[in-house]
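Quick question about two entries, pasted in order.
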Amino acid sequence: MTTMTSTASSASQQGWFTRSEAWLDSKGKGAWIAAMVLGFVFFWPIGLALLFYMIWSKRMFSKSCRSHSRKAWSRHGMSAMKSSGNTAFDAYKEDTLRRLEQEQSDFDTFLQRLRDAKDKAEFDEFMDERSAAPDPSEDSVDDSAAKTH
């Protein structure tokens, strides 16, 4: 009985803004958007104030695609590790995951060998170009030898 009177007194102590905010929250995001549109229709600063409040309090984007997809992917990742209860399927799933990890490791090794081969080919090309180019210090030595003779 005492909790009822304290709840009733706390509801009467709340301001009109807190009560209307709680009412709009209970109705959902559509109610917030409708209130904002009506605010723009009747007096545009009210609509603008509601828009800013919705963005500032994160009511506008509380269930955005980014946060939802991140949670969904984490749920799927965690469910992949749980047992399904079927031992044959769990063995198949474990074998498939192990095979995929091995294929990924082999592919990473292949890519590293490919990068190493490309680096070596570029270095060999650089060294060939460098050895084919005339050395400017040798030209000055040849010129000075020709002048003395």
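Here is the second entry:
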Amino acid sequence: MTDYTFLRSIFCEPNFKPEEIEKVLQQYKRVEFAKHDFLIREGSIGNYYYFLETGFARSFAIDLEGNDITTKFFGTKDIVIDWYSYFLKKPVRENIQAITPCVAWRITFEDFMKLFSIEAFREVGRTRLVSSFFELKNHTTSMIIDPAKDRYLNLLKEKPAIVQNVPLKQIATYLGITDTSLSRIRKEIANEK
């Protein structure tokens, strides 16, 4: 029997009827990824929408000079998805890869659409989509107007588990700085304490 405890923590809305929750849970499949496994590869179609139960993943793209640039980190309870590819069936332009071993729950687009008749499910999805958009917008704006140190301090405040579990080189590219600059910022912060 499948243990849906984690998913029940995601779909805990009081607006779900018991039979709706059961229908939602049955559409998800538990999957495991080893460190460095790809959840989604550049050029493919993002056919799955994942909830990350344990572990860490990241999305990244290769820039014009061949550099690996992290664009987002994913941790517990995060949605791991390429929204554009999943909903519009267009090829993914980034990779999403496990940084650590991960346990996730996935749903296909077809099964996701079956659940759209459930109002509470639509509301959970809408809330998470809006939250994801605001996170992206805040990161993009921060890259333009905030000093690197402030970007790092914000990441440390908002997602401390990322800073504790992700290689510094990946954090540096996410912040738009070199790993040498990140080391300097971390030393400066440590000296201020």
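Reply: The chain has a mean pLDDT of 93. The first helix runs from residue 5 to 10. Hope that helps.
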